[in-house]
Structure to design on (230 residues):
């Protein structure tokens, strides 16, 4: 069965610090997709990135970067030079190709607080 | 603008009452989903639908019901059989049934049972 673990429940940093959010997943599929979502205080989830299991290239988008390592089943998310507006809950999610698993399995989320 | 709307934003219910949460999307997406989020927890799937007039139970379907009569609408009814309905409910949609496409989320409905 698929599973996503975000061991960090809460993280607090001071503005301009770098912060890494960890995500570890379990799946039996060889083809799968990983996602990161941001949930600001308003509640709506905002899509950040999608990565398929065959693409292990790291990706950078502005202050955001993602490190995907199949060897350790991890898909970590780093925010560089954090800002107060980055304060939110961040979810990692997994979607498998096989069977009826046409939905996302979410981790429990990491609450990031960036202090001014 | 294209997107997903949920109403109401806040909903209060007395014990024993059924309530229906609305979810509408104008993205022309085939698949729609309902999730429940409890404080400090991730999202758990209640029901999902990949085409009109068809839907499947998710992980926590007991005490909930849905319908999918129109492509753009996927209402969720929280019945009196749901023992602990106070939660934040999120609706989502996705283009096609494939696992590679991201889900788009609505703003959510916060349900409180008095």
């Amino acid at each position: 069965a698929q599973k996503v673990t975000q061991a960090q429940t809460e993280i607090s940093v001071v503005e301009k610090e770098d912060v890494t959010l960890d995500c570890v997943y379990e799946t039996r599929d060889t083809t799968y997709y990983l996602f990161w979502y941001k949930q600001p205080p308003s509640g709506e989830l905002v899509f950040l990135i999608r990565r398929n299991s065959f693409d292990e290239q790291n990706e950078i988008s502005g202050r955001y970067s993602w490190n995907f390592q199949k060897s350790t089943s991890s898909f970590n998310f780093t925010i560089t030079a954090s800002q107060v507006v980055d304060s939110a809950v961040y979810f990692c999610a997994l979607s498998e190709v096989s069977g009826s698993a046409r939905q996302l399995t979410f981790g429990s989320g990491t609450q990031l607080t960036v202090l001014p | 603008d294209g997107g997903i709307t949920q109403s109401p934003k806040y909903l209060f219910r007395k014990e024993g009452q059924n309530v229906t949460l609305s979810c509408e999307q104008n993205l022309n997406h085939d698949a729609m989903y309902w999730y429940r989020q409890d404080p400090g927890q991730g999202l758990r799937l209640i029901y999902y639908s990949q085409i009109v007039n068809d839907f499947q139970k998710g992980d926590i379907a007991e005490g909930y019901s849905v319908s999918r009569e129109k492509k753009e609408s996927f209402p969720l009814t929280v019945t009196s059989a749901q023992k602990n309905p106070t939660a934040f409910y999120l609706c989502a949609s996705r283009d096609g049934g494939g696992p590679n496409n991201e889900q788009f989320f609505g703003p959510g409905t916060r349900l409180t049972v008095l």
Notes: DSSP finds no helices and twelve strands in chain A. The mean pLDDT of chain A is 91. The two ends of chain A are 41 Å apart (CA to CA).
